[in-house]
Amino acid sequence: MKRENIKDKILKQQDITQDEALFLYNILPVQDLLSLGNEVRFSKIPHRRVSWQIDRNINYTNVCISACKFCNFHCTLSQKERSFTTGMEEYKVKIDELLEAGGNQVLLQGGLHPHYDITFYEELFTALKEYCPSLKLNALGPPEVSHIAKMSKLTVKETLIRLRRAGLDSLPGAGAEILSDRVRREISPGKPDAKSWIEVMEEAHKLGIGTTATMVYGHIETTEERVGHLFAVRDLQKRKPDGTPGFTAFIAWPMQVRGTKLERLYHIGKCSPVEHLKMVALSRIILYNVPHIQVSWLTIGKELAKLALHSGADDMGSIMMEENVVSSAGANHRISKEKMIRTIEEAGFRAWLRNQDYTPYTPHQQEGLA
Ligand code: SF4
């Protein structure tokens, strides 16, 4: 296999084959792969600018019927001492703190609750928007949307239309893990399958709702399955209607398993720093049609994140006020606004504060921040 032929295809934004992707990942020297990822990044975004965002995670409930083996966050309804559903007064405090910190977006996620149908979410979104009309709701990953549709006896399309009418602005790409049903049956058998994740994203894109895509690697998946996941995202992005945002960014991170059932059942070692960087570069190369590659500083740490910005990533994501889900399984890095800017600058880039849809924060909001 000739590396120059593959590079030519990549720089012409053509699809590479699975064999070519495996060649890049398994055979090409690491420095060549990372430098190719970086070259693709600069061909798409020529500025030495790295975007970032201020948002806040809020979990509306931790009650979930899925019981994914890697999740320490969820509990059942009968675990009364642990289970919660966030109340409006708590939302108000958290939203006020977010506004105080200069943010305008909430990443709202929870579990697959056995009782809540679409009216719960419609009432919640409406109340949040009434309290803060400028608030952006980046809410509900595809498994939650599939679950709500099932609970409410609605199609996915009807569900998304009603959620959007109530205040949904965009969908996070959560719950993709690895888009392979072999893997999903092992690690998250109660979660909707890979086809359902793709169906929700495809309907969202047809409705013009912007989304992100994610991948969680480093557990029981094969390299072929990682590549298959990236191809599924690339091919779905090709089907988005012209003029709609589709996937705005892709984010991959290593599975956090500390204290989880998955850790007890399988021997899952930590991915090496090089493996993380190779995943960033491979994502950038395969997903030529997704505008941004985000680095998961929360799971890989700030120092490695700086190197990822030289391997294909152009976005540092959010400072993530109050992340609870992956943090409960071992991701314990934290970052402040000042540290985010410093980290980007130390990596040799200019920090650029953005909104969820990659438009710039307005100048007065940016004052003193970037
Ligand atoms: S990862 Fe999400 S869907 Fe799975 S058990 Fe945890 S809360 Fe439920």
Can you give me a brief rundown of this structure?
Helices cover 44% and strands 13% of the residues. With 370 residues, it is of the alpha/beta class.
Which structural class matches the secondary elements? alpha/beta
Helix-strand string: HHHEEHEHEHHEHHEHEHHEHHEHEH
Q: What percentage of amino acids are in beta strands?
A: 5-15%
Question: Whole-number average pLDDT?
Answer: 93
Cα gyration radius (Å): 20 Å
Largest sheet: 4 strands, parallel
Shape descriptor reads globular
Under CATH, the topology can be stated as: TIM Barrel
Q: What would you give as the CATH superfamily?
A: Aldolase class I
- Strands of the biggest beta sheet: in what spatial order? 5-6-7-8
Second CATH tier, the architecture: Alpha-Beta Barrel
Query: Which segments are poorly predicted (pLDDT under 50) over 5 or more consecutive residues?
Result: none
The oligomeric state of the chains shown is single chain
